[in-house]
Every structure is written in C-alpha cells, then in structure tokens.
Write a structure and sequence with these properties.
alpha/beta, 2,3-Dihydroxybiphenyl 1,2-Dioxygenase, domain 1, four-stranded mixed beta sheet, VOC family protein, Glyas_Bleomycin-R_OHBP_Dase
C-alpha cells in the first residue's frame, strides 16, 4: 500500500524546484489538473495549485545518518530555523527549515537502528 500527502500551494513550480533541487525529491507524477507528486524513497508528497496554500503539518525527510543531515543542512541553511541538533526525547538528530510556502520541513536521522519501512 502506498499513500500520498497533498498540500495546496500558490507557487507550485517554485515548490517543486525547492524539493527537487534542495532535498533530492524526484517528480513522480505530473497531473493535468494542476498537481505534481514528488517522491523521495518511500515518501510521496503532492502539491496542487490553489490560491490558498496549506502550511499546516511537517514534511519529514528521514536520511541514513548524521552526515546526510549535515549535507542537507548545507543546502537548506538559509531557510533553516537553526543548526542540526540531537533530540534525546525521540533519539534523533534533526533540524527544521521552511519551504517557500512557509511549510515546515524536518530533516532527521534516527540515532539507533530502526525497523525497515516497507
């Protein structure tokens, strides 16, 4: 089973560029009705044209290790809310940034082994 999370945006091209160029997503499907679905590993996120952007929620990108978190931080530093840090409550290393709509983007890695996602 696969799921997709959709968000409304009033700047779809800019959003698609942000996620593909800075976070390594690929365009998975372009829909004629004004939606672009992006994929990074097993995460599918869709952005659809609307004059009222949805900015609630967090798009979380889970990467393999701390070095990958640091690498993405380098790409997102101008939009980051702060540098990467350890979150002991959840046993992760993470940082948050804002996409062009102002939606929160989290980049994280688990500090200990986690079960595989299917």
């Amino acid at each position: 089973m696969t799921g997709i999370v959709f968000f409304r945006t009033d700047q779809r091209r800019r959003i698609v560029e942000f996620y593909t160029e800075r976070l390594g997503f690929e365009e998975w499907l372009e829909q004629d009705g004004g939606c672009t679905i992006l994929q990074r590993d097993n995460l599918l996120v869709g952005f659809c044209d609307d004059d009222r952007p949805e900015t609630e929620g967090v798009v979380t990108v889970v990467v393999e290790d701390r070095a990958a978190v640091e690498e993405l931080y380098g790409s997102l530093e101008p939009r980051a809310r702060g540098p990467p840090e350890t979150n002991a409550d959840f046993d992760i290393y993470q940082f948050f940034a804002d996409d062009p709509d102002g939606r929160a983007v989290e980049v994280q890695t688990f500090l200990h082994e986690t079960p595989p996602v299917s």
